[in-house]
């Protein structure tokens, strides 16, 4: 009963953070990307009960709010379609802007400095840093990628990367699955991608 109550309370907290961050999500399909990534983050946290569920949830909700501060044309041309897009200036900028926006948002919600620092450590480098700093960081980094394996994720990303569904699914196999941190993430990715490829006729289109 105590565990159920704690989980219920954490869900209420996450809803408050979603509401507080809502205005920052109306860019780059973050109002689709972030809720789906949140779903995966919670699934992964179920697999790792030692992880701080509240921290994971808050960090995945806020990890991409920094895109709000960046010109949308730059987001797609520099952040998704340039030759070395993962190390582009806008990638670093959206992380630092995410930290900047997250700090006052979380302070207004009553979080202490220690918790805010943990969230910001995850946000800062979630795309550009080559390693995770904690279990919670691993979960957030994987959940950020796992949404791509859904039909929705492929549909959105095809536009971002100017690829066909088949081309993007091939990219997920080759480039994204190998960099997932957790074995459960890889299992989810493979299962969901198999369904997505069937539904989108990726072998044809």
Could you characterize the architecture of this molecule?
The chain has one domain (2-199): Hypothetical protein af1432, CATH 1.10.3210.10. Helix content is 68%, strand content 0%. It contains 10 helices and no strands. It has helices at 2-21, 30-47, 53-62, 72-79, 89-108, 113-123, 135-146, 151-161, 165-176, 183-199. It is globular, with a radius of gyration of 17 Å.
Please tell me the overall pLDDT: 93
- Low-confidence stretches are none
> Radius of gyration, rounded?
17 Å
Number of helices, counting only DSSP H or I runs of 4 residues or more: 10
Q: What's the number of extended β-strand segments?
A: 0
- Give the count of structural domains: 1
Share of helical residues: 55-70%
Shape: globular
Question: How far is it from the N-terminal to the C-terminal residue, by CA?
Answer: 49 Å
Report the CATH architecture: Orthogonal Bundle
Q: What is the CATH topology descriptor?
A: Hypothetical protein af1432
